[in-house]
User: Fold this.
Amino acid sequence: MYSLQHPQMDECFLQLDSKVDEVMNLLRGIKKPNAEEAETEPEETAESVTDDNFMVTARKNQIDGKGNTLNSAKDRFTFMRQVEVDQAERSKARLERERVAQKFRKLGNSDYRKGDYESAVHMYSQALENIKDSPILYINRSLCFIKLGRFKRAIIDCDFVLNKLDEKNMRAWLYRAMAYKSLNDEASFENCIKYVRKYHSKQLEFIDAFIEKIKSKQY
Assistant:
């Protein structure tokens, strides 16, 4: 039979642990991690992902070519856009340098036809200040050096073309042969002839005619 007394006046209620006390005791029994344990617990990264733990909680930052961090698609877009702008600016600057070099080359050609080889060398050199990877400029200048009797300097220009720009360039091999012939270096002369024949086997008639001019010093 139920008691008609208020629960707080019921002695049986006073003898039993209250539900609140049970909860409090349960909470006290839970071990809280200390600061040292919290610090030593490894942080999950992409490298710690396993079959049981597949949640990626950290990612390494992506770095662009300039050492900048790319944290979002917007950053990547900005970076790629800047690359395109830089490339466009370089192309524009290259075209301007080529335009200037072309003017100096034409002036050099004009001086060569006049027999003013010193001035022609100067003009070709000015052109090369703007465009340093043009075989024709080095070759034209080397021919001027040959006309001036500066054979070793001519060989330097020919060697630069053959070693850095175009190893099969026919005029570079022929002018190199011409310079060595003028220095009475027959071994180097024959070596040049061997390679120019090898690389340009379909133009042997022209090569042979040029060699005859070299041997007869008709240059």
In short: The first helix runs from residue 11 to 15. The longest strand covers residues 62-63. The chain has ten helices and two strands.
